[in-house]
Amino acid sequence: MPQGKKTQTPSKQPKISSMNHEEEEEMKHDISKLRDKEQQVSLAQKVTKSKMDGLKKDVEANMDGLKKGIEAQMDFLKKGIEAKMNDVEAKMDNFKIDLKTDLKTGM
């Protein structure tokens, strides 16, 4: 089977484009606007990070305050329970003594 000729497309030379002065000034202006926008975004990111850091510190301080408050309440409740248990134990001891006395005397 005969091989076909490979067709090649002739390569075109790229046109050398040259900007006129007006196009060049417009491009410089656009680049300058992009740089300004980049600086604004960067500054906004720094401000946002600073605000977030401040909020994080506030939340941590609030959490520490809540933790200390809960611990103080738990200590208060624990002491109250211990006092009531001591009172119950004392009453039980008195009840035992009274019961033994009553059993000995025959009521």
Compose a concise summary of this entry:
Helices cover 79% and strands 0% of the residues.
Map the helices and strands:
Elements: H1 21-105
Task: Explain the overall architecture.
This protein is mainly alpha-helical and 107 residues long. Helices cover 79% and strands 0% of the residues. The protein is built from 1 helix and no strands. It has one helix at 21-105. The radius of gyration is 45 Å and the shape is rod-shaped.
Terminal CA distance reads 133 Å
Structural class of the secondary elements? mainly alpha
Major sheet: size, sense and barrel closure?
none
Low-confidence stretches: none
Number of alpha- plus pi-helical segments:
1
Q: Which shape, going by the Cα principal axes?
A: rod-shaped
Radius of gyration: 45 Å
Number of strands: 0
Keywords:
single chain
